[in-house]
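To the team - heme-as complex, inputs and output below.
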Amino acid sequence: MNREDNVRVDRAAAKLSLAHIYVAFIGFAIAALCGLLQGLVRGGIVTLPKWLGYYQLLTTHGVMMGLVFTTFFIIGLFLAGAARTSDGKLSPAASKLGWIGWWMMTIGTGMATVTILMNDASVLYTFYAPMKASPWFYVGAALLVVGSWFGGYAIFANYAAWKKANRGKTSPLFQYMAVSTMILWQIATLGVAVEVVFQLIPWSFGWVDGVDILLSRSLFWFFGHPLVYFWLMPAYAVWYVSIPKIIGGKVFSDSLARTSFVLFILLSMPVGFHHQLMEPGISASWKMIHVILTLMVVVPSLMTAFSMFATFETTGRAKGAKSLFGWFKTLPWGDVRFFAPFMGMLYFIPAGAGGIINASNQLNQVIHNTIWVTGHFHLTVGTSVALTFFAAAYWIIPHLTGRKLTKTANRLGIVQTVLWLVGMSMMSGAMHFLGLQGAPRRTDYTTYFNDETALGWMSYQKLMAMGGEILFFSSILLIGLVVYLAFFAPKGEEEFPIGETSENAEATPKVLERWGLWVGIAAFLIVLAYGVPLAQQINHAPPASAGFRTW
Ligand code: HAS
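Output:
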């Protein structure tokens, strides 16, 4: 170990990161239980009691998994990584901002959860108007978002302090990736903030009579698509920065890694209409522009695939592998910190291909609003991203609590990963097949008055339920391991792996840290893709809609 490997995150920074990670896993545990029940209901295996609604479960599951687990975990991961690459400490401003953010996010989550539990907000995680929730649900969601902005300010403050102390030097790759992700997040969340503050809150309090549905959905998807890259980029940060260290290699190319993150800032936002390809009110030509830009945002993922293959191969060859695929055998298959993210990468190949199918205009007509889409995101965020976060938790938690990832915990982590993969393959596979047969997403158990086609779906729905049960067992094991690593594992030192750049890599161009330039180009592309269609939507607004309680 060299001096850099020994850097430990100090107690104050560890406390802040752990506070985020603990809330993340509480959200995860609640979501996992709801997920199990949903699968069993949809498979026709159990019936819910009168006081518990299917859509109430579905909302809790989506909000907890998609918004709470991810946002808290990502900010916790970034704060820990920022401290780890700043001599173990966060700057005082970063700490203060981080705690403000944590409190706002936690209070917001609490408010939203209470409204869902009271059955006043079964509007699912996308909270589409004209379904109308309690105003306090939207206020809670707004607090969660604004709190996450403060999480971002904390990352920026720490980065600024690092730059000040290291004038002229290239920032650590992990911090660069954290800053890029949080820049994307600040821009993306403007859409949902405008929707919630100017449309949904006044409407749900009854201050205005109706809501413009088309505009609210467009603002939501301005946020909704970059949201998926907000989930993906931290996983990529782990792939680019930590995986090379874990496998005993080097970061293949610092510049390539940074360029892929810049491309996400530029291209993630002006693509939201690919979620609205089937909607009226947006002209075909604007949809086409968004489809083209969507296909361009695939490029940074292809660059990532190339970079990961290159890292694996060069590391294996440096260890003496000779044959074409000999390097494959040299990878540390018994180490959960590698095994889980690797399986995430492998599953991201079909998951990403599914995304390209979704984005293709004509094929979108086949899959839109079917359960195929649910299958798609359980492979992307539910497998590739989630497995990477689980693996990161297996080293970050003991690193921050001063404990060790023991051999037994490592082995159980591998079992947990395999269970997750088996459960997800069954569930997500069944969802993809069902979707192609036309089965809609987001429905309670129904045979559609014993319709023959719908009855043919039942065996797949049972398979989904079985997959869901296996995923639930995997989740219990995961939570057990998280609790063990946080409070009971033997005291010791666990490394937070940060890879060094290969000595063969080219120097990193300074332009990659000219944030003003990248934000400026991103703003230009957003105006180009959204300016005219949003102006048209506002000028030719359809009649405002009253709110509906559909549950
Ligand atoms: Fe998506 C819907 C298009 C990626 C999540 N997506 C969703 C929804 C979610 C979601 C949550 O165009 C549903 C929203 C809702 O509730 O309605 N998606 C795409 C495209 C991509 C994509 C083009 N999605 C993601 C990611 C997500 C995510 C990532 C979460 C993290 N998606 C869509 C579209 C819809 C959609 C439409 C709307 C559908 C509709 O009509 O409703 C691309 O970014 C994908 C690019 C990825 C690749 C794969 C690269 C592979 C890599 C792995 C390399 C492997 C290695 C290991 C190195 C091209 C990097 C290999 C080792 C060996 C030994 C082989």
